[in-house]
Write a structure and sequence with these properties.
With about 350 residues, the protein is α/β, with parallel strands linked by helices. Helix content is about 40%, strand content about 15%.
Length: about 350
């Protein structure tokens, strides 16, 4: 059977409020677990942020679900509320290191199947580079970062410096949208997640292209954007047309936007076979990787079924997207599971 590697999933360790207070007593995230141990709530200080269930923090529960879903390997990364970018850099550095160690503890329950991506204190580029290197030497397979740092997009010199460090160190980077743009108009129905989140990801990609940042970042960087690259694939034609027609669009970008597609990957979390076909047609079957956003309700509930059951993708393309591309991107070896014996 075809190997399935889910390269985009999240965890949140059972952090107590007292432990979170070391980062920020009023706003840092912690986990309130219900008496039955099956459900919980991510809290930020006294405020309930998100209801969650046991696989988010319990490796045994996670592995049982992965077995039922036929997933061979899964890369876990911080739930974005854990990033800590708004806090004091020194405390955020200590927090990131602690969360990264907790991630490895979770993965130690099945080290051939559960792998981790680190978080970093991105507000201080020196500390971020230091923690990225330390974490990867300790066993992490790459890093996950938010798609912006307040008003700084990925083309900012600060963030380009970090991406260049990762390129030079051979550290893969997953970019995840967070802290979505909204002026209060998107008040209900999870509209920040449904509208602003895809726009955030497109903004990150287009910023790297049109600013010329990709010209400054080594081509060795392994870079992936979550959620299928957001709205990028659908609107690439608009960006390309603008570059061709307006000199103010191309003034910092020496090559057509479409020529930069080889510089990054995307995951497959788009939930619709037509959208997946467009994504593969745009990016190429070598640059799309299985990603689920597990274990949240907005993630793919039957991990990999969109790809495996796609009516027009070839068997070769499916094998690459389901596992082969992630093996190459992260340098993974195939795990021995009941499915592969």
């Amino acid at each position: 059977m075809t190997l399935r590697i889910d390269m985009h999933s999240h965890f949140f360790p059972p952090v107590t409020r007292e432990e979170a207070a070391a980062l920020d007593a009023q706003h840092a995230p912690w986990l309130r677990i219900d008496a039955d141990g099956k459900q919980g709530t991510i809290m930020t200080g006294e405020r309930a942020f998100r209801p969650v269930h046991r696989p988010l923090w319990d490796p045994a529960a996670r592995l049982a679900e992965l077995d039922a879903l036929g997933v061979d390997q899964q890369l876990i990364c911080a739930t974005p509320v854990m990033f800590g970018y708004r806090h004091d850099a020194a405390r955020a550095h200590e927090w990131a290191a602690r969360m990264n160690d907790r991630a490895l503890e979770l993965c130690a329950h099945a080290p051939a199947r559960l792998l981790a991506l680190a978080q970093v204190p991105l507000q201080d580029v020196d500390l971020a580079c230091r923690e990225a290197t330390r974490a990867c030497r300790a066993g992490h397979r790459g890093v996950q970062i938010g798609n912006h740092l307040g008003p700084r997009d990925l083309d900012d010199a600060h963030l380009v410096t970090f991406l260049t460090h990762c390129a030079n160190e051979g550290i893969p980077v997953l970019v995840h949208p967070w802290d979505m743009m909204t002026d209060g108009r998107m008040k209900k129905w999870m509209l920040p997640w449904l509208v602003a989140m895809p726009a955030e990801t497109q903004l990150s990609i287009v910023s790297l292209i049109l600013s010329g940042a990709f010209e400054r970042i080594p081509k060795t960087l392994k870079l992936c954007f979550a959620h299928g690259g957001g709205s990028f694939a659908f609107l690439l034609g608009r960006v390309q047309n603008a570059w061709e027609q307006r000199d103010i669009v191309r003034e910092d970008c020496p090559h057509p936007p479409i020529s930069y597609l080889e510089r990054f990957h995307v995951d497959s979390a788009v939930f619709d076979p037509r959208a997946l076909q467009l994504l593969v047609d745009t990016m190429g079957e070598e640059r799309v990787m299985l990603g689920s956003d597990y274990p949240f309700p907005l993630g793919e509930q039957k991990i990999g079924d969109l790809v495996a059951g796609h009516p027009t993708l070839t068997a070769s393309a499916k094998a690459k997207i389901l596992g082969g591309n992630a093996q190459r991107f992260f340098g993974l070896t195939e795990p021995v599971t009941a499915k592969t014996l």
